[in-house]
């Protein structure tokens, strides 16, 4: 088996035993990128020089006989909306086509301290707005399982890189399902931590009350390792919570015997593919075989999640993206004869169609006369959705749902119909509105394409969902699902 096919845990053991060096591991991953990147297009920027220097430092440390941590020397892809000092960070937008951050995001600082080897910045939907990575300014990323299909979005490049072996793990961001939905489409593990569990400092903001950074990995153990490295309080982020970070790998093996699992009926209604429903029901039977009690429950305000999200998220985006004006950094129209024309041309040329659509939606809902009618009402609905989760999670240890209503769809299939595209996130959006943690784990194939199973937990109960996801993964053997590239 090639090195790029192994997990973080397996590679860590190999590095410790000196079966191969960090440089040899990196070379194998870079060769894999060279081999498949032309087809997949997972990266906006490949950072070979940065990665070689980082790998060399890890090798020197091993040569000195020093102990190495679980992520040291392991090649990773970083979503291109996470600031990396001295490395282009574009958000896959013309607006930031030349932006080189002068500082690292907190998660990057933490990963560097953990010995990361960064192989590149992953492609995404522009400013994280989209569910297919078709909205990237540069090029669409392909799904490694079927080149005619999307990898999901907005963290499509991160998910595709892990699935194709172009990175051992990746970081993504999740505002309405942007880690979990591509994880489902690409057959990898993806986690959105509790809001406030991972610092957002240095994440280019889309919707600040919804955004969270999280890992995309080959299996659940790797997910626990990466989450442990990036989680924790950060004084640079006022929404970061000073909650102790446990060793997420410590409880993985405990099993789920006696666990109470709720199955929300609203997630199995109209619009969910029959094949997806079947795969998820089979997965629920596996959880019961493992000793969990599974029982139907209700999250009655689920139907209102999509309209509430598409009022709140664009409103916050409208506010956050007001800073891109061509004055301080990023793209600037140089032909304008006055400053007002410069602002207008910069923004109309610098942003893509979907970003402009959401800015206009958000500006409208925040405008005088509509603020109370739309934005305020959406915030009240968000409270009702949060209360649904609170009630359900009082009775159950966790909830289980499909991650996406369908398997990966074809390129162009939904591009002309924004509403159809927005419905791709119907199973994930509520989790962001409620701020609770959730993980997507592969649970089988439908027509040769991966299906994701979503575990949703109580706030800061990442341990519980990792434990349940690990037990399921071991029993179902889904960590061995790989695309035949």
Radius of gyration: 21 Å
Give the number of DSSP strands: 11
The chain-level structural class is alpha/beta
The CATH superfamily of the domain at 3-246 and 438-451 appears as Amidase signature (AS) domain
Task: Identify the CATH architecture of the domain at 3-246 and 438-451.
Answer: Alpha-Beta Complex
The number of helical segments is: 15
Strand order of the largest sheet: 1-3-2-4-6-5-10-11-9-7-8
In CATH's first tier, which class of the domain at 3-246 and 438-451 applies? Alpha Beta
- pLDDT average, as an integer? 96
Low-confidence stretches: none
Fill in the CATH topology of the domain at 3-246 and 438-451. Amidase signature (AS) enzymes
Q: Would you list the SSEs in sequence order as H and E?
A: HHEHEHEHEHEEHEHEHHHHEHHEEH
Distance between the termini: 15 Å
The major β-sheet equals: 11 strands, mixed
Helix content: 25-40%
Using the alpha-carbon principal axes, give the shape: globular
Protein described:
Helix 9 crosses helix 11 and helix 9 crosses helix 12. The chain contains 15 helices and eleven strands. The longest helix is centred in the C-terminal third of the chain and has 25 residues, at 371-395. The chain is of the alpha/beta class and 485 residues long. Helix 8 links the parallel strand 7 (260-264) and strand 8. 39% of the residues lie in helices and 13% in strands. The chain has an eleven-stranded mixed beta sheet with strand order 1-3-2-4-6-5-10-11-9-7-8. It has a domain at 3-246 and 438-451: Amidase signature (AS) enzymes (Alpha-Beta Complex). The relative contact order is 0.14.
